[in-house]
Structures are given as structure tokens and as C-alpha cells.
Design a protein that fits this description.
heterodimer, A: alpha+beta, Ubiquitin-like (UB roll), 2 helices, 20% strand, B: alpha+beta, six-stranded mixed beta sheet, 16 helices, 48% helix, globular, electron transfer activity (chain A), Beta-grasp_dom_sf (chain A)
């Protein structure tokens, strides 16, 4: 099972087993990782599962779709070039070792 | 095939739906409701699966019992709710562009101010009806203001919503009564979906601007979705919230301790009470679920409320707990048809419950709560309370 690490704004981190096919948002909720609110339950409507992806791994993720693109303009913490919505990122074997930084604020 | 003879639209069931929901979940992943010749799903996995597979479980044949391919709907179908791709996506994109979290945030201060004002008045009164004076009063002020409706005529919004939500059920006495009561409202609603009757800068006017690729008639239908979907649902959620807190004083104490929990608390109210209880879908192909083959063209009743209390998904599902992570419930639906106004509803719930939590120590029942029966919604007709 691929391992994914969520890093909190204060630098503490947790590495969890990510089930292939679940989204990186669902994986965070499954493991009770703080900092992912995911109010809309994964429908790209709330921008509260915002994450910053390690830049060298951006290419391992699928491209932004138009819904995600628009929603990223609504994040509570500033959008960066590495910003993604974790609800739109399905876990694949290729993502093993992925590090996601969580923003200061989601709401 | 697992069959049940229950009538989910019977008065007694609508007044207290929880026992039927339990029976449905326990009966199996897919159940045949013989009374209406429809399938039913009530477990979280199957309900979510159906909601997120709109190609198999379509909406354009109507999301009520009536099959639009065989019967003429009582009103022109909604371009959002009662539509499938690609038409649905076009309409949905237009409306989401007007209801983004960023836009919703611009209403925060105004809503919070109105919430403070209303709560201050109610605290002074001490005793009031938490439905009429609280749960209806707040959305009926802030929401039509935001949409850009005139102050006059707003009393038509609730009877209209009652028609819409009873219209998804069978032609029972609730449907007939709602249609009679709402007859006058229909014209007012139609009139106030038109651009010339909507205040500039409001959400209604913005829909007309964003929907320039649509005909004038279609633009009005998009605005109609706001008026149909945005009032009764929120009203019921807020009324249910007060009943929850009057019934679970420990949860009220937990909220009072940290009023900033009000957003999560509102989320739990929606999971626990599911103001929108059910929606239908129609199969577009033969599909196998839980060992049962559902043929193409059949109606499937999805019990959102039952899914939100499925113990397979939620620990202590029947416990109202504002500290739980309620995200992932289907009280606002899920997938392409997920409630487009959900961020608005959350804002209303959050600011109003926070205002109440800052001012009110205890909430007690001052009389028997009376349910408001509806073929789709779960909520109250009246809820006498005393606050201190």
C-alpha cells in the first residue's frame, strides 16, 4: 500500500497507508488527520481540503480539472503553484512517498 | 428479492421516520417497496454509490415518484435538479460560478449582524416558537435579501417550497393540500424569477448575468432553483437544530463552551436529522447492486436520512454528537447533483447557532413539538421553547 505523509503547519507530520482508489482527502479523514475539513464531502464545492504538494511530485498527479481550478481560487490560505484539492486526487501506487503540506487555514 | 410493504409516505412514518429507516437498512442493500413498485436503498455505501453514478441513476426522469417519461410534471422541470449531462453541467457551472465559497463569504458580516439582532429579540422575549420566530424568521430575512427579492410577497416562499417538496412524493393528501395552499404562490414565484423583478447586485441578478448563453425563460428557471431549494431546507435544519439542543442539553453545553464549534454543530444537525430525507433516481440500464438486478427504467428511492445514520458508516450513528466529524454525510446529496447552495446553508446555520450559543444558557421545551409532515422534508411545524 502506498504511504502518504501529511505535514501540519507546525511541522509535525503523520505517515499513513493510503488505500488505492480512495482520494487523498478520504485517506486523511479515514486516519483522522487534522487540517482536512472536507465540508462538502469531496464534491469540489468548498475548498476546505486544500493541500500543498511537494513540487517534484506534481507531475505524478492528474491535471487540474475546471472545477478544481475554480475552487482553488476560493481557498482560505493563499493558493500556490503547488496547491491542489485533496478530494480530487485519487491514490495510485505511483504516489508512494508523497508528502502533502497542510495550509494554516481551511475555512 | 427482499420486499417490504411499508409506506414511507404515510403520515405516521413521516412524523417519525427513524424506525422505518432502520428496518430498510437491516432488510438488505436493495429492497423492493411493493406499495409503489419502486426500489429502495438505505445504506450509506449503496446510497452514495447511486448518488455518484448519475449515468446509471439519472435525474431527468424526475427525482420524485412521478416518471417524467410517462407523466407531465406539475411544473417545468428544473434545469439543475431534474436534468442530466450535458444540459445539467451547463446549468450547474453557471450557478456554481455565482455561489462560490468566495461569494458566500461576502455575506458573512451581514448574516452575522442579522443573527445577533434576531437572537437579542428572542432572548428578551424568553418564550417563543423556535419554528416561526427563529427557524423561519432568519432565512426568510437573509436569503431573499441576498437573492434580491422585494420585501413584499415573501410569504409565498414557504407555500411554494412545500409544493415542490411534497411534489416529489405520491399524490397523497399532503401533495393535494400543498398544491391548494400554494396555488397563489406559483404566479408570484414565476414573476420574481424574471430579471426586471430582481434587485441589481443580488444573487438572482447575477444568475441572469452569468447565464447569458441561456434563453430568458431558462434564466428564470435557474433563479427558480434558488427559491425552491434555498428556503424550506434551511428552515427545517434550523428548527431541527433547536430541537436537538433542547433534547441534548450536554451538547448545548458543549456548544456554549466553544461557540466556534457552531459550524461543526450545524453539520451534525444535518447528518442527524437530514432535513432532506429522500430523493428518487431512475435507472438508465440494468444494474446489479448487492446481488439484486435492477432493470433499466425503474425508479429507485434513495434514503439519504437512513444513510446518514447507517451504523456501518457512523460510530454511534443514533447519537447526536457535535464533536464528531460529520463530513461525508449525504444530507446535501453527493456527486454532480450535490446541493449547490450548501455553503450558503452552512453560513446561515453557523452564524445563527453561534449567536444563540453566546447568549443563551439553557433551552427548554415549553410545549410539545409538532412535526410538519412533508413527502420529502423532515422538520417541525412548531416548537415552543423557553430560553434563559
Amino acid at each position: 500500500m502506498p504511504k502518504v505523509t501529511y505535514v501540519q503547519p507546525d511541522g509535525t507530520s503523520r505517515t499513513v497507508d493510503a488505500t488505492v482508489g480512495r482520494s487523498l482527502m478520504q485517506v486523511a479523514l479515514d486516519h483522522g488527520v487534522d487540517g482536512i475539513v472536507a465540508e462538502c464531502g469531496g464534491n469540489a464545492m468548498c475548498a476546505t481540503c486544500h493541500v500543498y504538494v511537494a513540487p517534484e511530485r506534481l507531475d505524478d498527479l492528474g491535471p487540474l480539472c475546471s472545477d478544481e481550478e475554480e475552487m482553488l481560487d476560493c481557498t482560505a490560505s493563499p493558493r500556490a503553484a503547488t496547491s491542489r484539492l485533496s478530494c480530487q486526487l485519487p491514490v495510485t501506487e505511483d504516489l508512494d512517498g508523497l508528502v502533502l503540506r497542510l495550509p494554516e487555514e481551511q475555512l | 428479492m427482499i420486499t417490504l410493504d411499508d409506506d414511507p409516505f404515510a403520515d405516521a412514518v413521516l412524523a417519525d421516520p427513524v424506525p422505518l429507516h432502520r428496518r430498510l437498512r437491516d432488510a438488505g442493500p436493495v429492497v423492493r417497496l411493493v406499495r409503489y413498485d419502486v426500489w429502495a436503498m438505505a445504506r450509506a455505501d449503496e446510497v452514495t454509490r447511486a448518488l455518484t453514478d448519475p449515468e446509471t441513476f439519472c435525474s431527468s426522469a424526475g427525482v420524485g415518484l412521478s416518471d417524467f417519461r410517462k407523466e407531465t410534471p406539475w411544473r417545468p422541470p428544473s434545469l439543475l435538479l431534474e436534468a442530466d449531462a450535458p444540459e445539467h453541467d451547463r446549468a450547474r457551472r453557471t450557478v456554481t460560478s455565482v455561489l462560490t465559497p468566495k461569494v458566500v463569504k461576502t455575506y458573512r458580516d451581514t448574516f452575522a449582524r442579522e443573527a445577533e439582532k434576531l437572537v437579542a429579540t428572542l432572548v428578551e422575549r424568553g418564550e417563543f416558537d423556535a419554528v416561526a420566530d427563529f427557524a423561519e424568521a432568519f432565512p426568510l430575512k437573509v436569503f431573499p435579501d441576498a437573492v434580491g427579492l422585494p420585501a413584499e410577497g415573501r410569504e409565498h416562499l414557504l407555500p411554494y417550497g412545500a409544493m415542490v417538496f411534497n411534489g416529489f412524493g405520491p399524490r397523497n393528501h399532503l401533495f393535494t393540500e400543498a398544491m391548494e395552499r400554494g396555488a397563489v404562490a406559483r404566479e408570484w414565484i414565476a414573476e420574481h424569477c424574471r430579471a426586471e423583478n430582481l434587485a441589481p447586485g443580488g444573487l438572482g441578478a447575477r444568475i441572469h448575468e452569468a447565464a447569458s448563453e441561456f434563453s430568458e425563460e431558462e434564466r428564470a428557471l435557474l433563479v427558480r432553483s434558488f427559491l425552491s431549494a434555498g428556503v424550506d431546507t434551511t428552515v427545517h435544519a434550523l428548527g431541527n437544530a433547536v430541537l436537538c439542543f433542547a433534547s441534548y442539553p450536554d451538547q448545548w453545553a458543549a456548544l456554549r463552551e466553544k461557540p466556534e464549534r457552531s459550524r461543526a454543530a450545524f453539520e451534525e444537525v444535518v447528518r442527524f436529522t437530514s432535513p432532506v430525507q429522500t430523493f428518487f433516481r431512475t435507472t438508465t440500464r440494468d444494474v446489479e447492486i448487492g446481488g439484486e438486478r435492477i432493470p433499466a427504467g425503474d425508479k429507485v428511492l434513495l434514503f439519504l436520512a437512513a444513510a446518514n445514520r447507517d451504523p456501518r458508516r457512523w460510530p454511534d450513528a443514533d447519537t447526536f454528537d457535535i464533536t464528531r466529524r460529520a463530513a461525508g454525510h449525504v444530507g446535501f446529496g453527493s456527486g454532480v447533483h450535490a446541493c449547490v447552495g450548501q455553503m450558503f446553508a452552512r453560513l446561515e446555520g453557523e452564524v445563527l447557532l453561534a449567536a444563540l450559543a453566546r447568549r443563551v444558557t439553557t433551552i427548554e421545551l415549553a410545549g410539545e413539538p409538532r412535526p410538519q409532515l412533508s413527502n420529502t422534508l423532515r422538520g417541525l411545524a412548531s416548537l415552543p421553547v423557553r430560553v434563559r
